[in-house]
Amino acid sequence: MYHPKMANEAYCEVYFRDSRPPHEIQFQLESTLMTLFQPYRDGSKLILVGAVRMAGCPYSFQLRFDAALLTTNAYTIRISTSWEALPAEHHDYFRRTSESWFKYWTQPFKSAPPPAPGEGSEQRYRAIEEQSLNAESHLTDAASVQREILAEMHKGKYFSTAHKEGGTNIRWRAGRYTRADYGESEETETFSDEASFLAFLRKFYDWETSSHVYPNKVSDFDAWKLILRKLRQ
């Protein structure tokens, strides 16, 4: 799985199978990495790509939808990095930590054999591909993403964070949006209107949504899509 290509480069590649369509795996990765993926087609295959920086080291991600099998789907996830252009005094650190990051990011995906050439249904593949490409076609601006978040919260989804001192749960409850800390702090806060709650939520996730582009900031639209990814069942 882990392949040191050269002294200052490495990559990992995992073949796996999953019953979910590509966009659901994409959303899982986006929630973990706090970066958005972009789709493109390489020949007949749908590929989703994204990138992050960890401690200044760039990592590139490629999720490839390989085949639509009878009861599941075949995928490849490939992650690569190079620290060649970074200061030489940090090379040993990046060399040691890259394998740990690869293992952490790929841990949810159980390794499986790649599909045989021609294996799977082309018709089913195209239907699933179209489903994934259009999964969020209704989210065209920040306001539409905000409406999606509020609607999902009314259905029972919520936000939750955790750290060594405690954490925070953010829910829709009894006709109000609530923020409740637990652990070291037990502070609570309620919001009676959507505008004040959305302003709070945007500020609450401001650092996390732009953490991998620091000191820059992602667009407001991208920030809201990343906040949407943090919703839990």
What does this structure look like?
There is one protein chain. With 233 residues, the chain is an alpha+beta fold. It has 2 domains: 2-133, TATA-Binding Protein (2-Layer Sandwich), CATH 3.30.310; 142-229, no CATH class. The protein has 7 helices and 10 strands. It has a 6-stranded antiparallel beta sheet. A 4-stranded antiparallel beta sheet has the order 7-8-9-10. Strand 8 and strand 9 (176-183) form a beta hairpin. The longest helix is centred in the middle third of the chain and has 16 residues, at 91-106. The chain starts with a strand and ends with a helix. The model has no long low-confidence stretch (mean pLDDT 94).
Provide the fold topology.
Blueprint: E1 2-6, E2 9-18, H1 22-33, E3 38-42, E4 45-54, E5 57-68, E6 73-82, H2 91-106, H3 122-133, H4 142-154, E7 159-163, E8 166-173, E9 176-183, E10 188-191, H5 194-204, H6 206-209, H7 220-229
Antiparallel strand pairs: 1-2, 2-6, 3-4, 4-5, 5-6, 7-8, 8-9, 9-10
Helix pairs in contact: 4-7
